Structures are given as structure tokens and as C-alpha cells.
Amino acid sequence: MLRFSGFELDSERAELRRPDGGTIKLRPKALEMLRLFATNAGRVLSKQQLMEAVWPNVHVGEDSLFQCIRDVRAALGDEKRQMVRVISGRGYLFEAEVTGADETGMATPETAAASEPTPTAPDANAATKANGETTNRFLDLSRRRGAAFASIAGLAILCTAIAVWLLRPGLIFARGPATIAVTQIADASNDPLVAQMAANVGGRLTDGLAKIENIRVLAPDAAASKADFVVRGELQRSEHAWTIRARMTATDTGEVKWTASHSVGITEDIDVQLQQSRLAAGIGHALALRLNELLNADPRSAAKSRVVIEQATAHINQTSPERFKAAQAMLEHALTEDPDSTDVQIALAALLMRGVQMVWVSGAEREAAETKVEAMLQHTLRAKPNHIPANEAYCRFLNATNQFRSNLVACARALSFDPWNGIALYHIGLAQIQTGRFEDALATFKQADRFDTPQVSRWTWMIGAGWANLLMGRAEDAVPWLQKSIAITSASGRTHMLLAAAYQQLGKAEEAKAAMQKGMELRPGSTYRNVPPPRKNSSPVYIEAAERIMQLMAAAGLPEG
Q: pLDDT tens-digit profile of 35-73?
């Protein structure tokens, strides 16, 4: 039983009781979060710690966390957020005196004193024996101290030798993680509304940066003397949009290392919370990529290789088998000239997987391509384990080859260096779909939509949200997501086919046939047999739901084949 501020949290009965004895209803996850707060009162818990404890082994968006915290505050009447406090850049603090212990046995002030051993009176008859034992213990202690001093001396010599080796001229060695400070986002208008918006966006940006594995966020007042980089920003509001401009400077030289701006429209369908999320994500995503680039800079990277990568990318963006072959030849030639270039290897790996997915590489060639891609990506990850492009490419590869459980780990790794990475979130959602976790997938796609970064991939998480809804039989919810995806990228035949299935389920036969006809125009030769993605390693739950969608597509006009 845990007691605080007049409340009682009975973990055994899963109940929260008010000071008057009445029971407060809380959802299981909110109750678990309150228990976690209460057993860690006075200790700051990060968002990551909370999510891992309340949703173990499940990827959920931050909105699930925020909703639980709102439920907890509402239950405690904590409208002013004095009990569950936000500690900017660090997490949440439960500021209440807690007594009692829950069923986990975690000690609290009330139980700690009770657990202390009670002193007893000494036994006079044992005095002589105690004196003899004291002498033996003294001799034994002396011997152990001598051995300890010898070990310490040996260790000191070893450490000195290692330090001399590390510090020898010409050797670059890794120190601690890079440090960064985010100063308060400025507001030139002196408008209280803009000032509040700037503070909230700054808080979200700092929270996101604090999740990045290989950097450390410092308090703003420590920036001038301790941080490697300082980020400053300004927020402006026009009639139709919010615009944030930011820059990052190196503290030791004052050199500007990065600048960016990002705008979010002020429209009726985007509420203030979403505006804040997208402003922070738009700047945060670009900043995370730049930081990662600086921390993984390869002085060997030839300018010639970068030019070839840009040319190859320009080729493949004009989707056709001929362009694919031309880009492949360019990258393979560049790799022959510079076999250790991780950038070229990543570009070639991404290109080959695109060829596999577009069925430009098939049969025995496909198997050889997948083997080659995996070898290249594993090589780049050994060379640059913290490199975002390498982790993101491996995340995509594992999804494309139906290695879903490994994919979830790899994509989470990519997110640990860029928490706003919509591409990684999209691939996590796809893996959750294939493993039959449709609700989790929908939450992940919605999280990607809240970040909306990179915007070029926006249509993908929208089709993902439509697909997840359709798999759960929610055709009415699926339609708007699919329509928004088509409005952004109208050339995807798969999106039109999913829309046809949704219309068919809703009984809109004419709309279903029209959508299927458009899908067939974009993907000629599509049939009932070749439209579904490979089902290797897929959950039976997914296979059953996917089959229902295929039957709807067939009813809308998809040929049997």
C-alpha cells in the first residue's frame, strides 16, 4: 500500500483511493505509471524510462505517454502540475512524500526504518573468544590490504601505460559524448502567445535531443563554458504560418556549424499541440542529421564519390528500369575506385533494394542482390555504428527481406540518433503490421504524421495508417488517410488498390471499381497473386486480415491472374 497526499494506491487490488475513501477509476497503464512515480518519488524519470517500464517490449508513440500522465494528473487533481512536475530536458518528477511499500517490496520511508536490524546486548561470556578472533581478523585484514595495494599499484601502472599509448602524437581517441545546449527560443514580437509557443517548442526540441544516444544535453546556463555546441532559435508568427529559424555554433571557435528554418501552417485541421510537435520535429530532424554528420565525419570521403552519389540519386528518382541500371553502373564503378567508402556502399545498397522491391531484380539475381546488400550494410555498421544513413538503410533492408523482429531493433537503433525520423517510424509500423500488431502500427504511423519529417516521405505513413485501419476492418477510418496519401503522391498503384478495397467494404461499388482501375493503370499486370507482399515470417493474424483485403480487391475488379 502506497500513501501520499491523502491518497492510497493499492497495487494488490489495482485501486487508487481518494482521501475520502472513494475509488478513482484509472486505466491499467495509467495506474502502472502512477505506481512507478510513487515508488520513485523524488527521482527524475526520463520519458524513455517511463515508456520502457509501462510498455515493455512494445513501441508506442509519445502521445500514449502524455495521455497516461494527463490521466494521472486528473486523478490526483494536479491541474497546476505541482505533484507530477516536468523537469525540462530530463523527464518527470513525482514530488510528494510517499509512505508504505507496494507488492514489489521497494522500500519507502515508512518501511525502511522497520527493516533496520535491532541492536542486542553483547554476550559477556563470549569476550575471550572475541579477542582471539579479533587478532586473527586483523592479520587476515593486513594480508588482504597488502594484496589490494599490490593490485592497485599494478592497475595504476597499466592505466599509465594505456594513457601514454593513447596520448602519443598523431593518435585520435574518443572522449565522452558531445555536449549541446539549447538556449531559450527567442520571440521578437513580445507577444505572450508567441512567447508561450516558443517555450513549448524549445522544451520539445530539448526533450528530443536528450534521447539521442551519443550526445549529452546541458542546461542553457552551462552552454558558454561547457557545451561543445550551442543551439539558438527564433520563432515568428505570420497570418498563415509559424516559422522557426535556428543555428548551431561551436563553442570553442564561434563558428556556425548549421542553420535551418521550418514553417508550419496555421490551419483548422492542425491544433496547437500538433503545430508545436511539427515545429520541434522539423528543426530537430535537421539538427540530428547535422550532428550525426559532424560526429561521423570521414576525412577520407572523396568529393568525387559524393558527386557520383548525387548523380545516381538523380537517376533513380526518375523511376524506370533503365535509370536503375544506369545508377547501379555509376555506383559500382565508384565503389571499385574507392572500395572503403561507406557513403557509396550505403547508396548502392539502397539502390539494389529499390530494384528488388520494384521487381527490376528477380530470381537468382534477387537472392544475390540481397546477400550483397546485407554484407555491405553490415560492413558500414562495423565501420560507423552510430551513422544514421547506415542504420536507416539496414532498417529498410530488414523490412524488405521480412526479418521483422530484427527490423524492429535496427529501426529503434536509427531512432536513437534521430528521434524524429519518420522513415524509421514507418518501417517500424510495417513490421508491427506484419507481426499482427495493428493497433501498435496505427499508433506508430500517427506518431510519424505528428512529426511529419522528412516531408518527402509523408505519403508513406499515411498509406500505412490507412492500411492498418483497413486490416482492422475500419474502412471508414481508412479512406481519409488513403485519400491524403494519394493527394501527395498519386503515382502509387498500391494506394489506389487499398482505397478500392475500403470503398468495396463500405458498399461503394462504383467508387471501388474506379479506384481499382486507376491502380491497374499505374501497376499494369497486377493480379490477385502478385499484389500481396511476401508473407515469409508474417503472423497468422496478419495473413488472415490481408486475405480479407485481397478478396475485397478482387470484388472491385483485381484480376485473379
A: 999 888 888 898 888 888 887 766 666 777 888 888 888
Q: Where are the alpha helices (DSSP H) in 227-383?
A: 272-295, 303-317, 321-337, 342-357, 363-383
pLDDT at position 315 over 70: no
Centroid of chain to Cα 175: 25
Residue 385's CB: how many other CB atoms inside 10 A?
Answer: 12
| Beta-carbon count within 10 A of 118 CB | 4
User: What 3-state DSSP class applies to 233?
Assistant: strand
Q: Which residues pair with 260 in a beta bridge?
A: 246
CA 273 to CA 270: how far, in whole Å?
8
DSSP 34-97: HHHHHHTTTSEE-HHHHHHHHSTT----HHHHHHHHHHHHHHHT-TT-SSEEEETTTEEEE-S-
**Are residues 250 and 257 in contact, defined by beta-carbon separation less than 8 angstroms?**
yes
C-alpha 171/C-alpha 343 separation (Å) is 24
Closest CA to 59 of 405, 394, 457, 292: 405
End-to-end CA distance of the chain: 64
